[in-house]
Write a structure and sequence with these properties.
Layout (H helix, E strand, L loop, with lengths): L2 H21 L3 H13 L1 H22 L6 H24 L2 H20 L9 H18 L3 H10 L4 H25 L5 H25 L4 H24 L1
Helix pairs in contact: 1-2, 1-9, 2-3, 2-5, 2-10, 3-6, 3-8, 3-9, 4-6, 4-8, 5-10, 6-7
Length: 242
Amino acid sequence: MDFAEALAIFAFVAAAAATQALSGFGFSLLLVPPLALVLGPREAVVLANLLGPGMNGIMVWRLWRAVRWRTSAVLLAAAAAGMPVGLLVLLVVDARPMRVLIAVTVLVSTFALWRGFAIRGRSLVGDLAAGFTSGVLNTSTSMSGPPVVFYLQGRGLPPDEFRATLAGFFLASSFVAVALFVLGGQIHARTFAQVAVAAAGLVVGYAVGAKLYRRIPVTHFRGIVMLVLVASALLSLATALL
């Protein structure tokens, strides 16, 4: 890993972590597309998943009492069933189609979040469907959030419970994803160096985002986050099609 690559990893992770601290979502959505241009889709997805325990662990620690653990457990069980499918997609599909898939996933997810899309209703089937889809997207694109976000929005959880339950689910699912990547031989010596640089960016970015959160209304940043996500996705899509 040369200096330019290390600097890019640090900057992208710091920006994504700051965004997560400000808006409560968007870490992988913002991180994976530009990181895929530097490392390639597979390494970008693996690295984003390896950072998941740290990113979500902070939120769970702060919102522990608000987590709906039963809901998180059902979602996790379904996600665990979907993750091997996503890993197969990651290993089989070539790099260029993966970049297109990542870009399209970001664009569709960003548009849906902007429009306030939510899956209405509450059922065990809904839990399982949202969890399974999230698991497939997790290990294939590292963008597991949208299905669960849309579903929990439709259940009308209070803000703290919504954010805490998401964090609890993502924390647990990230450990499952990391285990699958290890078993699938996707963790290499260079991965540890990437994680070290990325961890520094995560700490710095989260600290900056948390500080800004106390000073600037989050509503001002939601539009900025959406614009950055769209720009990132369009860049990834343009690169894949060239």
